[in-house]
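Much of our argument rests on the idea that a fold can be written as discrete symbols. This step matters because it turns folding into a mapping between discrete strings. The record that follows shows the chain in one-letter code together with its fold in token form.
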Amino acid sequence: MNSQLWFDVIGWVGAAALLVAYAMISHKKLEGDSATYQLLNISGSILLAVNTIFYGSYPSTFVNLIWAGIAVFSIAARRRTGSR
């Protein structure tokens, strides 16, 4: 497989992770501050960032890295307060 196809697959998996996270929240299957939701956000955002770096779409890269950072800080805050 060529590298472009790999980066496309990475991007689609990332997009799917973010959409699953959003769907689970919308259907009340997850809480917005749950570790599962935040991990889906982190993984999806990082995968999309990898894809957008490959294609040179830096504004989208920026948004996805900030999105992942918000999720990381959310998990860190939950661990500091002892809620999991």
Remarks:
- The chain has a mean pLDDT of 94.
- Helices lie at 3-26, 35-55, 58-81.
